[in-house]
Amino acid sequence: MGDFINIFIKSAFIENMILAYFLGMCSFLAVSKSLSTAFGLGLAVIFVLGITMPINWLINEYLLVNFELEFLRFIIFIAVIASMVQLVEMVVEKFSPGLYAALGIFLPLITVNCAILGGSLFMVSREYNLGESVAFGLGGGFGWFLAIIAIAAIRERIRYSNVPPALRGLGMAFLLTGLMGLAFLSLSGIDPAVFGGWSPAK
Amino acid sequence: MSTTKAKVAEQEPLFGKKEKALLRDPLLDNNPITVQVLGVCSALAVTSLVYPSLVMAVAVVFVTAASNLVTSLLRNTIPKAVRLIVQLVIIATLVTLVNEALKAVNFPIYKQLSVYIGLIITNCIVMGRLEAFAMANKPWRSFLDGIGNGLGYGLILVAVGFVRELFGKGSLFAGSPIAIQIIGPGENYLIDTATTGQWGNTFFGWYANNNLMVMSVAAMFVIAVMIWWQRARNPKLVDIS
Fold it and tell me: Any transmembrane segments, and where (chain B) (predicted)?
């Protein structure tokens, strides 16, 4: 349990997917214009990351490594992610047509969201076990969610400010992301082990 | 008579105006990163040094050009419903090729780029060009479009890497055969800021490397400044959102 919380905190705050590794920047920049859409996309990313990570872990461990098929890793991972995104798309369309219409093109684009594939590849290169990869998926998704709603809220406000014309929109988004990244850097001093002693059983 | 005339009209030059525009436009006015905002993801983290950025740029040019070509050749046979999956498989295959080749040719740089080579698969610029261009155009033009967009992307990557390495580490092309130490404390730098009596110390004794540039957030600032400069020169590119 301690390990689970460690990795969750670490991947959500200290090694944030967007602000430390710049994964998923395309949809991050494109969808962060309004808070409600950003909220929906953030939730979808948490969900897809949380599901694909353990599935990819199982496939990698029992199929690819076992049969020495590691060179097929990219294709298999992206196929799993594509089918999971399709699933999420169908669920969202059925239960929340408003959100489905608002997300539009960006829901299928989660497939090519680097955060998802990047999460799976990081999981392999850091040699996580199954529990750790679930924690990494949920934590990474949560960090992504936090970052996109934070920047969407700032961008909604900054529309009323007097920004130089050439910096409006995209330029400001880059600057703000950089500043937020600097702010999140200050969290890197936290030792996640302090949460390790905590467990609900005690 | 009329058929031969039509044939002549149909024959397009191999390097006409349109073909040149396909190569030139993505470099500046329709740049994948600063204007189309595609493919920012997998690249920013590799730009702290010029050499890995250069390798990454070459890999991306290869993948965009080859995937555009293959998709354009297959465009009439791909069913619309499964086109995304087909495109992903094409891209993933090409990226796997690049990955294995790089692993064999230059292992240190492969280690350094780690997951970011694999992330070319989800680089929006590759998929974006397939959807926007290769699915509707002939192979030769699609190939040129791929080269152009890959180069536009690589240009920004190398430019960011150049600024970050020069001001962050005082060197250029570190890790490659043509590495140069430009400015810093020590005799192996071109401008030696530490040794008293050297001209470098007299004029640049105050100089220190900017540690912000080594951090990954610096890439955001550098690109923001590039966007600012580009849009100030060409106000047509400004979007109000």
Answer: 54-74, 81-101, 113-130, 142-163, 212-229
Where does the pLDDT of residue B204 fall: very low under 50, low under 70, confident under 90, or very high at 90 and above?
confident
In 3D space, the residue among A142, A147, A124 whose CA is nearest the CA of residue A53 turns out to be: A124
Give contacts of B90 with chain A, Cβ < 8 Å. none
Cα B233 to Cα A165, B40, B42, B160, B226: the distances in Å are: 11, 22, 28, 19, 11
- Among A23, A122, A169, whose Cβ lies nearest the Cβ of B241? A169
Distance CA B45, CA B113 (A): 9
pLDDT tens digits along B72-114: 999 888 887 778 788 888 999 999 999 999 999 988 888 888 7
Chain A contacts of B216, Cβ < 8 Å? 20-22, 181
Backbone angles phi, psi at B32, to 5 degrees: -60, -40
Interface of B with A in 163-222 (CB under 8 A): 215-221
ipTM for this model: 0.79
